[in-house]
Amino acid sequence: MSTAQVNNSKITVYVVSCWIFAAFGGLMFGYDIGISGGVSGMDDFLIKFFPNVYERKLHAKENNYCKYDDQLLQLFTSSLYLSALVSSFFASKACQLLGRRPTIFMASVFFIAGAVISAASEHRWMLIVGRILFGVGVGFGNETVPLFLTEVAPIQLRGAVNILFQLFVTIGIFIANLVNYATSTMHPNGWRVSLGLAAVPALLLLIGCFVITDTPASLIERGKEDQGKAALKKIRGVEDVEVEYKEIVAACEQAKQVKHPFRNLVKAASVPPLVIAIFLQIFQQFTGINAIMFYAPVLFQTMGFKSDGALLSAVITGLVNVGATFVSIYAVDKLGRRKLLLQACCQMLISQLAIGGILSVNLKETGTLDRTLAAIVVVLVCTYVMSFAWSWGPLGWLIPSETFPMETRTAGFAFAVSTNMLFTSLIAQAFLTMLCKMQAYIFFFFSAWIVVMGLFVIFLLPETKGVPIDSMVEDVWKKHPVWKKLFKNE
Which ranges does the record mark as transmembrane (predicted)? Predict the structure, then answer.
């Protein structure tokens, strides 16, 4: 690690504004995660688009776990993530050919279009088209923003800066829960307000595109060396950037030799980060977090809370989510990635097992939990959300964005984003049906996955704290007891 990389930078107002404006891409994504579950539980929305679900909800005493089990209702949530899955590969190409900033700009435009169409929907097909446009915006934003933040951050703050994306995701979820709580009494168009307000974070991101610079790595990669050097001086706040500039140029020269970055993902230097990126995204979803965040109001109604109480409980979990992400910002560059992930596995496992145990014994197909047990479940959900928010949430985005070599960085990260979207859509599409079939045992299902995740971290995930992003192969992969075997013939 060069001294210049560590010390030769200043934290200026400009660079902080770049971080914050880019991180509004996370606010956009988080708002959508939070808004979906609340809107799905609003009577006015169900009457207009899903009358069969509304009829079943009126007879909720028939089965606590199955009143929202409807494939079309789940498609309302999951269609966004299928759209994001496909669009992330187009975003990867846009990132490479046009740069990070124009791709972020496109993300905000697609998202605003999705918000307008969703809020104006009169038919179910309009609702789905709006969700697909939301998805394209999410695909472009989630592909580009974490890469942007990683590439503009000084090495000693790379983890904390990248986690701003996840922090804004959690803030977006929290704001969405507050909005749902407020609009749930605005009959008959509260759901329109909830969906339409998604345009606000996208508009802030759009404005930010006129403030932020493109990243030095992106400019140099596209042959704009002078602009890249100027951008590097601007984001570092100093004139002497020669050492870091030469390292970026060398990495870009190596990247130019690669004509087919997706094909090069099977070469030794890219295999470890590709495997880790894909599995981190799979595991992030199989913690069960998005099942809880999408459907928190629905989940709390299942436990016997009234509609307002359910939304309020979701607001509480959203607030915990935001607060705990600050822990990650503080700790990730001090404690490292592995310690946070392993600690969280233990905490999430205990929380999920306890929730599953309480519900399996006390919440049958009819009836409700008593108030004390319901309060305990809310506390356990908060404990679970807390541990996720300082570990698998932010680090699932940070680690893939910092571990790929330059020549396969956008292609590799596209696989990470698309994997995340694929498994997010699977969970979104399947969760309410799984809740109906498995009932409380769904929490034991997610608990088993948490054990697998912990073993993955222990044996396959190296520590990347403090390692320059263009030195990962030499400093990390070639020294790891498992991954070094890939490099025997080099």
Answer: 12-31, 72-91, 103-121, 127-149, 161-179, 191-212, 274-298, 310-333, 373-399, 411-432, 438-461
| CB-based contact 289:446 (threshold 8 Å) | no
List, for residues 165-208, the tens digit of each pLDDT value. 989 998 998 898 889 888 988 999 999 999 999 999 999 999 99
Number of other residues whose CB lies within 10 A of the CB of residue 304: 18
Task: Provide the pLDDT confidence category of residue 468 given band limits of 50, 70 and 90.
Answer: confident
C-alpha 463/C-alpha 341 separation (Å) is 11
Question: Distance between CA 170 and CA 394 in Å, rounded?
Answer: 10
CATH of 13-212+258-486, one of 1.20.1250.20, 3.30.160.390, 1.10.3720.10, 3.40.190.10: 1.20.1250.20
d(CA 270, CA 409): 9
Q: How far apart are CA 483 and CA 485, in angstroms?
A: 5
Has residue 4 got a pLDDT over 90? Answer: no
Place of tokens 């971290």: 457
> What's the rounded mean pLDDT across residues 390-395?
93
* DSSP secondary structure code for residue 184 in this structure: T
| pLDDT score for 271 | 92
C-alpha dist (Å) from residue 133 to 33, 81, 82, 115, 467: 15, 10, 11, 8, 37
CA distance 180 to 190: 8
CA 415 from chain centre, in angstroms, equals 14
Torsional sign, CA 239, 243, 249, 255: negative
Residue whose structure tokens are 């396959």 = 460
Tens of pLDDT, residue by residue over 375-389, are 788 888 889 999 999
Name every residue whose Cβ is closer than 8 Å to that of residue 371 and which is 6 or more positions away in sequence.
none
Can you tell me which residue has the tokens 């940070």? 398
CA distance 442 to 447: 9
Q: Where are the alpha helices (DSSP H) in 336-408?
A: 337-362, 371-389, 392-403
Helix or strand holding residue 66 (H, E): none
33-84 residue pLDDT tens:
888 877 887 889 989 998 887 887 776 555 666 766 667 777 777 788 889 9
Domain ranges of the chain: 13-212+258-486
What pTM value is reported for the model? Answer: 0.82
